[in-house]
């Protein structure tokens, strides 16, 4: 079996969102290597699909990659909060829409060769507009986009975030749009 074994780790940097650890890894052939590992808090994402077959998305800029794209409302799960509670909170804070009952769509590991982060994606088949989003700085705008347009938006590079690509393509598949 080709299994890499993590023999030990030590933290080299830490903040409230992540830890950077240095691991002593033993390869299947017995060699050792130092491998950096990002230890991250879980992330919860949420969106909704309305009666017109549109999905709620955020158009935002990411300074790290200097790119614009459609994304889902997302954020870290706070201590004592369930994944579903975090997803609902993030959607409300970032869009101004409160989701109806959330359903788990899928969980992805966006960078499992470097990080242990898991992103838990939820969706609802309805949402209620509560008001202007508390965290309006998170995005340039929030829009209901036809779910049928998702594959084309992915192909054009307008949906770039791995968690959004996976979640929206899955939602497109199960909703039959």
Structure write-up:
This protein has three helices and twelve strands; from the N terminus they run βββββββαβββββαα. It has a four-stranded mixed beta sheet. It has a three-stranded antiparallel beta sheet with strand order 1-2-3, with no helix packed on it. A three-stranded antiparallel beta sheet has the order 6-5-12. The chain has 177 residues and is α+β, with helices and mostly antiparallel strands. The protein is 19% helix and 43% strand.
Protein traits:
alpha+beta, 177 residues, 3 helices
Brief characterization of the structure:
The chain is of the alpha+beta class and about 180 residues long. It is built from 3 helices and 12 strands. The strands form 4 sheets. Strands 7-4-10-9 form a 4-stranded mixed β-sheet.
- Poorly predicted sequence stretches spanning 5 or more consecutive residues: none
Which outline best applies?
A: elongated
Portion in beta strands: 35-45%
Radius of gyration: 18 Å
Give the distance, in angstroms, between the N- and C-terminal Cα atoms.
42 Å
Quote the average pLDDT. 96
Which percent bin holds the helix content?
10-25%
Strand order of the largest sheet: 7-4-10-9
The main β sheet shows up as: 4 strands, mixed
Number of strands: 12
User: What is the succession of H and E elements?
Assistant: EEEEEEEHEEEEEHH
């Amino acid at each position: 079996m080709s299994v890499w074994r993590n023999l030990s780790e030590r933290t080299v940097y830490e903040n409230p969102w992540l830890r950077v650890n240095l691991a002593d890894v033993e390869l299947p052939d017995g060699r050792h290597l130092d491998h950096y590992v990002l230890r991250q808090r879980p992330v919860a994402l949420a969106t909704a699909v309305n009666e017109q077959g549109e999905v709620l998305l955020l158009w935002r800029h990411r300074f790290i990659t200097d790119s614009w794209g459609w994304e889902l409302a997302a954020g870290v799960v706070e201590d004592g909060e369930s994944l579903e509670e975090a997803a609902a909170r993030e959607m409300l804070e970032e869009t101004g829409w409160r989701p109806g009952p959330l359903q788990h769509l899928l969980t992805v590991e966006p960078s499992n060769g470097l990080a242990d982060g898991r992103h838990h994606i939820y969706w609802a088949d309805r949402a209620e507009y509560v008001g202007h989003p508390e965290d309006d700085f998170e995005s340039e705008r929030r829009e209901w986009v036809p779910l049928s347009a998702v594959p084309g938006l992915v192909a054009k590079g307008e949906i770039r975030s791995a968690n959004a690509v996976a979640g929206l393509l899955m939602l497109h598949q199960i909703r039959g749009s």
